[in-house]
């Protein structure tokens, strides 16, 4: 039924860029807020960015100015453009969906993808 499938992760050198995609299916994508979270080894999952159903965007302090979230409702897809990548951005990146507007709370998200690995080398 519900699926969130991340793609676009990989290995990149510091200063480089990656564009992550999350393809959604099985729910009403256009009325859900979408978010990106990440989790590095040994660390708790961290808020990265969210985009509301209407297109409002929010970013965590650590990525603001470097990452851009966007969505294409016609394709049921949310994107995360990551520029000026740093080794500390290395993590598994997860996309998530919620029908509400508690954008920063992991517990508010109804659906989660399996994650895609992003590794930034120095």
SSE order: EEEEEEEEEEE
Strand content: over 45%
Helix fraction?
A: under 10%
Rg estimate, integer Å:
13 Å
Largest sheet: 7 strands, mixed
List the defining traits of the structure above.
122 residues, mainly beta, four-stranded antiparallel β-sheet, 50% strand, globular
Folded structure, characterized:
The structure is a single chain. 34% of the residues are buried. The protein has strands at 3-7, 10-13, 18-25, 33-39, 46-51, 57-59, 67-72, 77-82, 91-98, 111-112, 116-121. It is mostly beta strands. The protein contains no helices and eleven strands. It starts with a strand and ends with a strand. Strand 7 (67-72) and strand 8 form a beta hairpin.
Task: Describe what is shown at a glance.
With 122 residues, the protein is mainly beta. It has no helices and 11 strands.
Give the helices and strands, then pairings.
Blueprint: E1 3-7, E2 10-13, E3 18-25, E4 33-39, E5 46-51, E6 57-59, E7 67-72, E8 77-82, E9 91-98, E10 111-112, E11 116-121
């Amino acid at each position: 039924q519900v699926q969130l499938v991340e793609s676009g992760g990989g290995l990149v050198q510091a200063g480089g860029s990656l564009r992550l995609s999350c393809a959604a299916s099985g729910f009403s994508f256009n009325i859900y807020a979408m978010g990106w979270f990440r989790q590095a080894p040994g660390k708790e999952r961290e808020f990265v960015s969210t985009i509301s159903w209407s297109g409002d965007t929010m970013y965590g302090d650590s990525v603001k100015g470097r990452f851009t979230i966007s969505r294409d409702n016609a394709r049921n897809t949310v994107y995360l453009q990551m520029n000026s990548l740093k080794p500390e951005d290395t993590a598994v990146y997860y996309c998530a969906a919620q029908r509400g507007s508690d954008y920063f709370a992991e517990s508010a998200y109804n659906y989660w993808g399996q994650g895609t690995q992003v590794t930034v080398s120095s």
